[in-house]
Amino acid sequence: MKNADKACILFSIAGAVFFAAVYFVYGMWGHTVIACMYRGESLGILNSVIQGQKELPVDFYFGIADSRFTFFFFNSVVLGIVLMAMSWATVRWGILPVLIWALLGAAISESLIWSVLAKPVVLNYLPVPIRDLILEIYFYYDRRTIQYEPASALYDPELGYTLKPGAFTFACREFNNQFRVNRLGLRDDDFSLEAPDVIILGDSVAMGWGVDQDQTFAEILQQKSHLKVLNTAVSSYGTAREMRLLDRLDTSRLKYLIVQYHPNDFRENEEFYIKGNRWPGADPVRYAERQRAYLTAHSYYPGKYTVKLAGMLKRDLLLRWYDRPRSVEPFPVSHAPDPVTEVKMFLNALIHGSHVDLSRVRVIVIEISPHLFIDDQFVSTLRMHLEKEDVSRYFLDLRVMDLSPVLKDEKYFYLLDDHLNVLGHETVAKVLLQAMQSS
């Protein structure tokens, strides 16, 4: 055995012994040291770490220490294994072949991920764990977000942002669409702002993310019903902001108000309720910071997808090691603690979010979620709540339409994206038209 091989073996053994010793020492005496720090019985420099914070129980600090130790320990182990493997390979074959093979492997990985993103139909043939990782890469590091694109959004002091008046193109992996935006920052024409018969409130789904302007269910509904329909939906708006936007509109001839709900609306509706049914407005500095962070996260550099994939695999391996659930879902959807609370927050925003008198207006509520999360829980809970609570003093009529049986099929959504495709918008328009004709 060559001396270099012996050195690698000794290095590997020493590394394994070191990590085992660190793990053993923390497991045996870590909590004891933290308890001494908590009581002020340790070294002065250590005591100062949590000095003056004893209103929190010691278990709180145990949890923080465990999570931080686990993070640094696991990352150190992974880094050590990689360094040992590269050292062993370098001794065996030389540094140049190792670097070539490493770069070649990274290039193949990057090309495969890029190919799947470019041809999403491949997702149908991938195992679910791999598909979820690709979807996570797409949603958090690849997909464009219209409200943070400088060419398509403007800061608004009350609502946070609106669409940018004029014309622009918005494109993601599966679509490329033209947007025509009126003077109020809405994806509709200026003519529709003048005393519309129907107003549609919603987020990116109703806005028409992924379809052309004349393919949105708002435009289709206008063509089929022969009523003037105004589409006011803006990406990521919750019910509270949607109702605040209603105050800016001409509602003198309003007959129908269609509200498209999404599970992500809950956090905004809850914040509106907690702050006493007042919308606090938006901070321009915070919006600029979010926009800057978005642009940084979505800028591409060679090997970006492979680096992100490696981080996700390491995270999932750590969660599996500690038998904890995966905290990140492939689709970015926030969940309410329970459907009853979700419904209460929604109705509160619907009733108190605007100053417009809706007592002569028929309201139609629909829920559209990503196809992986479609169910009738929100709709059925809302219907049961309306049976107990009389809202007739607020609205002429409030109907809740269940779209879950219709939209369960994946054919109504894009493969990569979580938004409706053209067929999905046509289907929603058909259901809404039937509801309006039967009212």
**Rg calc:** 27 Å
The overall number of domains is 2
Helicity level: 40-55%
Order of strands, widest sheet: 6-5-7-8-9
How many beta-strand elements?
9
Describe, in short, the structure shown.
This protein has 439 residues and is an alpha/beta fold. It has helices at residues 3-39, 44-47, 58-93, 95-118, 128-142, 204-207, 217-225, 239-246, 265-274, 284-297, 304-321, 339-352, 377-388, 404-407, 422-438; strands spanning 153-156, 160-163, 166-172, 175-181, 198-201, 229-231, 256-261, 362-367, 397-401.
Main attributes?
five-stranded parallel beta sheet; two-stranded antiparallel sheet; Rossmann fold; alpha/beta; 10% strand; 51% helix; 2 domains
Task: Characterise the protein shown here.
This protein has 439 residues and is of the alpha/beta class. The protein folds into two domains: 1-92; 154-288 and 333-438, SGNH hydrolase (Rossmann fold, 3-Layer(aba) Sandwich), CATH 3.40.50. It is built from 15 helices and nine strands. It has a five-stranded parallel β-sheet with strand order 6-5-7-8-9, with helices on both faces. Helix 9 crosses helix 12 (339-352). It is globular, with a radius of gyration of 27 Å. The model has no long low-confidence stretch (mean pLDDT 86).
Task: List strands and helices in order, with pairings.
Elements: H1 3-39, H2 44-47, H3 58-93, H4 95-118, H5 128-142, E1 153-156, E2 160-163, E3 166-172, E4 175-181, E5 198-201, H6 204-207, H7 217-225, E6 229-231, H8 239-246, E7 256-261, H9 265-274, H10 284-297, H11 304-321, H12 339-352, E8 362-367, H13 377-388, E9 397-401, H14 404-407, H15 422-438
Parallel strand pairs: 5-6, 5-7, 7-8, 8-9
Antiparallel strand pairs: 1-2, 3-4
Helix pairs in contact: 1-3, 3-4, 5-11, 7-15, 9-12, 12-13
